Amino acid sequence: MSAATTPAPCSPEDVRRVACIGAGVIGGGWVAHFLARGYDVTAWDPAPDAEDKLRRLVAAAWPALEQIGLADGASQDRLTVTATLAEAVADAQFIQESAPEKLELKRSLLAELDAAAPAGVVIASSTSGYPMTDMQTEAADPARLVVGHPFNPPYLIPLVEVVGGERTDAAAVEWSARFYDVAGKSVITMDRELPGFIANRLQEALWREALHMVANGEASVEDIDASITEGPGLRWAFMGPCLTFALAGGEGGMAHMLDHFGPSLKSPWTRLEAPDLDRTLRDAMVDGCEEAAKGRDYAQLVAERDQGVIDVLRATGRLGGAR
Ligand SMILES: NC(=O)c1ccc[n+]([C@@H]2O[C@H](COP(=O)([O-])OP(=O)(O)OC[C@H]3O[C@@H](n4cnc5c(N)ncnc54)[C@H](O)[C@@H]3O)[C@@H](O)[C@H]2O)c1
After folding, report:
1. How far lies 232's CA from each of 91, 242, 263, 268, 312, in Å?
2. Which candidate, 103, 104, 82, places its Cα nearest to that of 95?
3. Ligand 1 center to residue 136 CA distance, Å?
4. Given a cut of 60, is residue 5 above it in pLDDT?
5. What is residue 6's predicted lDDT score, i.e. its pLDDT?
6. Across-strand partners of 18?
7. pLDDT by residue (tens digit) across 193-231?
């Protein structure tokens, strides 16, 4: 990381104004989160219908946010949607970028944000997998650019993975980790860049195998989903895959687990190559999901998911985002 310092304009505890750039599924989810935590939020998105969609998303998220508890003064009225990117970031004390996952777009957008934002304000990208080193190439002050990778929906799933690029100032990584923590997120700070960070690398392994099974007609979309929600997913909500496998080794713990099941790692269960995502597989996934939805529309599924996450957080004593 760069040795240059990017002094933050205020401490993470003193942030009052946050800008969200790109207001789709994730940007809108961030807007809902920051509003619920009592921040003033400015948002900008170039799509002509962006403001309507954003306000609908926030309104749909609000009942869940009320249920888990709003910060004092939190209000949907504290959202301002601006006509330009420059207006959105002019007074911002923290900026979250959630534009489409296209490298060239991220590069030029981060450079544009860097040029428009007040000096020293940290700019975080929601990217699902691009290393910041690859995205910060065009910015005049790359030292203040970090990755702050959320999970959908950012207003309910606590985790944010924070990591800098080669030209990021370590102080910017530290500042943003502290800021997310103050803003009610659960933070993992990574000291090096990994493609897909930690969680997406794990999710991709599962996802790849799911696509193989559908492509080969080995399992339906519904069975794949049930195999997780009725099985290991119940444990993963409070104990990660490593510790749950250590328990699977009985009193012998992880040592017995590895000695016993280690050889099966070479079994043909895993097909490490990605499947060919052709039209047939795409349609099988789309049709399978439609069948699994059993007539529920997007809004119903979002409400069900939100309630499910809240119930799990409540049941495991983690409402409020603390780990
Ligand atoms: N969807 C997820 O589950 C998820 C999870 C974690 C991270 N992410 C990451 O979040 C980012 C946004 O993904 P999403 O799922 O919200 O996508 P999305 O398609 O729902 O939203 C993207 C938004 O960006 C807007 N946009 C287009 N060009 C833009 C520009 N030049 N500047 C600013 N905004 C622009 C679009 O109008 C759209 O509203 C991506 O980097 C993605 O990898 C997504």
Report:
1. 45, 12, 21, 20, 14
2. 82
3. 18
4. no
5. 52
6. 41, 94
7. 988 899 998 999 999 999 999 999 999 999 999 999 999
Q: Do 173 and 43 share a domain, yes or no?
A: yes
CA–centroid distance, 16 to ligand 1, in Å, is: 24
Q: Which of 84, 126, 161, 203 to mutate to test the pocket of ligand 1 (most atoms within 8 A of CB)?
A: 126
- Residues 125-170: pLDDT tens digits? 999 989 999 999 999 999 999 999 999 999 999 999 999 999 999 9
- Are both 182 and 220 inside the same structural domain? no
Show the ligand 1 pocket: residues with CB < 6 angstroms: 21-27, 45-47, 50, 98-101, 105, 109, 126-128, 149-152
Same domain (yes/no): 28, 130: yes
Q: Please tell me whether residues 61 and 173 are part of one structural domain.
A: yes
Closest atom, ligand 1, to C-alpha of 27:
16
pTM of the model: 0.91
Q: What integer pLDDT is reported at residue 282 of this predicted model?
A: 86
Q: Which atom of ligand 1 is nearest to the CA of 127?
A: 41
DSSP state of 164: E
- Tokens encoding 121: 């304000």
Which range of residues forms the domain containing residue 235? 199-315
Give the Cα-Cα-Cα angle 43, 76, 315 (nearest 5 degrees): 105
